[in-house]
Prior knowledge:
By secondary structure, the protein is an alpha+beta fold. Helices cover 45% and strands 20% of the residues. The protein folds into two domains: 4-174, Jelly Rolls (Sandwich), CATH 2.60.120; 182-284, Homeodomain-like (Arc Repressor Mutant, subunit A, Orthogonal Bundle), CATH 1.10.10.60. It contains twelve helices and ten strands. Strands 1-2-9-4-7-10 form a six-stranded antiparallel sheet. A hairpin with a 4-residue loop joins strand 5 (46-49) and strand 6. Helix 3 packs antiparallel against helix 4, helix 4 crosses helix 5 and helix 7 packs across helix 8 (207-218).
Amino acid sequence: MVPVFKTLTYKGMVVFEKLSMPYFDRIPKMYQKDEACFMFVQKGEFSVRTPTEYISFRPGNAVLAKCFDYFFETSNQQQNSSDYMEVLGVMLYPSLVEELFQFELSTSNHSTDFNVKKIEVDALLENFRHSIDILIENPEIADEAIIRTKLKEFILLLSKTVQAPSELDFLAGMFKINRDSFKSIIQQNMFSNLSLQEFATLCNMSLSSFKRKFNEVYNESPKKFISLQKMKKAEQLLTDPKNRISDIAFDCGYDSVSSFNRNFKSLFGESPSQFRLNQNDQQLS
């Protein structure tokens, strides 16, 4: 299918959007700086990879996310759950919410312990979702007064949902990013199939800065170090005959068994299947 993107704007900014699109493997978040978002999952399943988390979502869930670098991903199982994906989003901007509520976000010291949070959609949020869906499909009735009212309603609802002390504190917390340590990001994503550029994105760095930082921390190039860690894990998993080689390849972050076999043989001098046979022979002798 061709992606379908519908929006409603307020003061020249997109505040409500509906996106229907075919499945994908991995894409970066498609938002601008100084923008937090809330996405109702209307159809399909996907996951969000943050620097240190991997969270799965399905209809009945919603994504509450600050503005930072992360990826949307889908597995084969998720792609088989439906024909396409659809989300309905609410965008929040500091300047806009300050105007709506006559707040100064800088007056609140409130912070949160998350950058992305899974929200279970209750009856109140479901009613709100349905009302926004109607407005997006009928933009001629969505004048500025209605959109302003719906934005304020959303903020009031969500601040109660996440149990923030106040609407001001909820909004202030949504624009404060929690930065993870470089090592924690690497360790959390070590056995993914991320490219070095994607690792750099999660670390909020350029590729050259990421490589330089990696060498400083690990005293090794990222490509060589990560590949070696994957091979060490594969070596351990191969000792258990119950682990299929195709599953091991996936668990170690390889896109295909052929690339896994090629990398394994270049390091150990034999294929994973040969390695397993030799290990079994040694145990029997």
